[in-house]
Amino acid sequence: MLLGLTGFASGLACGNLDTASAGRRRPDAGRADKEGAARGDAPGEPTVIPPAVEIGLCPPEIDDYAAQHSLPESEAMIAIAAETKASTEWWIMMIGPVEAGLLRMLVHLLGAKRVVELGTFTGYSAIAMAEALPAGGTVITCDISEEWTDIAKKHWAKSPHGGKIDLRLGPATRTLEGLPGPYDFVFIDADKRGYIDYWEACVPKLSPRGVIVADNVLGNGHALDPDGRSAAAAFNAHVAADARMQSVMLPIRDGVTVAWRRGG
Hints:
Blueprint: H1 8-11, E1 16-18, E2 24-25, H2 29-39, E3 48-49, E4 54-56, H3 60-68, H4 75-87, H5 97-110, E5 114-118, H6 124-132, E6 138-143, H7 146-156, E7 165-169, H8 172-177, E8 183-188, H9 195-202, E9 206-215, H10 231-241, E10 245-250, E11 256-261
Parallel strand pairs: 5-6, 5-8, 6-7, 8-9
Antiparallel strand pairs: 1-4, 2-3, 9-11, 10-11
Helix pairs in contact: 4-6, 4-7, 5-6
């Protein structure tokens, strides 16, 4: 657990490592576990949310300062964040405004037109990326929860950018099988045990200058566990060993990896 990692907070640069309710399974954990079982994942690492505390990789006031001096949230993003925090205890799974700003910046700088998101939740990151797309661009976002994506759809419908979002309900691995490339930008923020499968499904379909961003690569600190058996550690090792790609890991919130094709 992160609380047992002495010096972890001081040893990394700024970001906020947010956690939520200890030992309790996400509402969709059973479905996520079934998808993992179908892939042949080993049991014993259920999809859970850690303790209801916020552990910063830098002090909260620094994180707030960074947000105040970064790309501001849109009205749609603010509304989604507010309803998510008011209506579900799982709001901590939503990315923060600084990370959302990073996604918006990357989508804009790439000139991306086709974005694939794995893990919609309540739609905050999807609308953020949609706002950065040009006219005619699309965010294809995948999730398995009707309850959470109903919040997303309500707010997307009020945004002038909502028409750019294409929601696909169902296991992401199956959706990706039927979703042809090229993908200009991919954001992975779904079932953590499925990250390697998502990576392998997306890399061959990347456009020549395509980018993959993966969230939660520190695994609430478990990426540093000595046994190296956490889903985050396995994914990070897989990415580092992939000769097709090059990447940088950023200590924003729970860790963000940005990867692109070698020679791209």
